[in-house]
Here is the input.
Amino acid sequence: MSKTILCQIKRADSPYYIEDIDLYVYSIEELCYFLCNNLNLVDVTFFGAALLDWLGADLQMAHLVKTLNRILDEEENPSAEEMILAVVREIRWLDREEEKKLIGQMETLAARPYPVRRKLRADALVTHQKYTRAIATYTGILRYRKETAASEEEGAAVKDNLGEQFDGMVWHNMGVAYAKLFQFDEAAECMKRANELCYSHTTLVNYLFCVRLGKGEEAFEKLADELGVDGQTRQKMEAEIENVRFPGFPENIRETINRWVHEYHRQTGL
Amino acid sequence: MGVRNLTVGIDLGREQPQLCYYEASSDKTITAPMKIGNENVSFGEILEEIELMNSNPTSDLTVAEEQNRRLSGEIADVLLRSMKTLGIKEPKEEVAGIVITVPKLTKPYVSLIRSVYERVGIEHGRGYLQDYNESFYYHTFYQKKELWSRNVGFFLFEDRSVSFLSLEMNQQTRPITVKPVEGMEITLANEKMLWDDQFYKMVNASLRQNIYSSIFLMGDTFDKNWAARSTALLCKGRRKVFVVDNVFARGACCAAREKVLKKQLSDYLYLGGDLVRENIGMQMVVQGTEVYYPLISAGVNWYEAEKTCECILVGEPELRFLVSGMNDRRQRSFRMELPQLPERPDKTTRLRVSISYESPNRCLIEAEDLGFGDIYPASGLVWREVMEEDK
Here is the structure.
């Protein structure tokens, strides 16, 4: 059985560009869909002047703009949650159950410590292949952690109960982002820090892979010896490397290179 | 050029087309044959070509479009020049509404007249079209009420053929419905001396015992010199009888007045043969509430019954339409499948749904996959379905 939802607002001729994930949205429905499915990426700065201008001029949604401006002007600390709800409620994008679920998700997210929320954002950026932005966010988290640790010692900041394990995960995911950009030296450095903070099988293996890809087989063997990696793990890693298939030469080199260049620009924002 | 607020009616079907216009400021209606300077104009050849298109419709859309483009260009050119002759120099500025009338509306006629309006610069909402029967309705109902308080009859003489049309009102309904009823047709004999007897019998059979407030006659063939007996029968019982020459052009002009200037017939509903007799709608979520969303309302002419909307699909790849008759509340469901629609998460398929008519009982539904912006690009798929009226 199907259901249809009437679109009462015309699609815009000029789209709104969501820079974070390099996405153009043309309709209020697309914007609602993005908001509901990317809570980690949306904070109050998302609702900037450019978005409000687009909503007012291109989608002709003066009432919604008024509501968003009211929230921004009247509230001391306007929240992204309130802004998101204002948008989805304007066209009743969600039914009661769906809205309840969304509110629950937003509450869960809001209850998490600030560094965790930032990490979720950075992880989402990695998922959307926006690696440079993700790296900047991970770096920001680590800086923030360092600064707050100092403040906590002085008793100026509230403890967020996040241990070294959390920092290790941040280093690890930053390493993944660097590796996706083929910057294996930086990736190896991150993995090393990750491995030091949360010594786990995954961080160890990823650290070794990054060294192997960045510095070669000899450096890999040497490091494996230094870290006392057992034979079984080494064998598994070798098997994994051997299973990597050579992709072959693309049929249309020019087209493929252009695609890679485009992807690189997308991923780095350069 | 100042705004003249003219309403114009044009009868394209005559050997010599007629134009009738009404100027609101002077409250005057003027009817004149269409001319360019002193030269008469005729659309005879064009209309013949249209008739050929009606009887042998081409399946090649390019050919039909090219033909439509050529013919509409010719008509628009003549129309502009003959309007200029009558002092209407800037139809785009001076005309508030225009109705073109032809004997019977078919798809080629509708496309042609719409293209003519486009070329003349008359946008949708100012340019209309209707058939002769509807023009007769407007012509009649824009007369004094005493002339149409009961049935109204109309005899049309075209060479030696005579046809009868009556307007029958149902005062029990609200709005009051007015139905055109086509009556008998005869062909007058070669010998003129037999005509009066033939026509007398036709009048007798057509009017029977029914009460008629007025009778209109039109056509060059009619002349009371040969129709003494039949004229007496027509006038029997103080029936008002009029011999007129501009029923359709004037009726079209009155229709234009009704549509764009003042609604003086809002208590009446004309139930012509071109009316769509079914309501079509969909169950849609509008502002969070599931409601019946009307797409086509019964009671509009098929060539004016059009609707396009966009919706988001949730669930199965199908559209469901709810169809109900004009007078009964019985509803039937019409399901349109959308095969090969790409699988996407719920609420990420936007569809454009367009409804139009090919004839009063043949509805065309078109659905186009618009995708969901850059998140899920459009597949470009278009589905078409024909829905016939449930008889």
Summary: The radius of gyration of chain A is 23 Å. Chain A has two domains: 16-111, 114-268. The domain at 114-268 of chain A is CATH 1.25.40.10 (Serine Threonine Protein Phosphatase 5, Tetratricopeptide repeat).
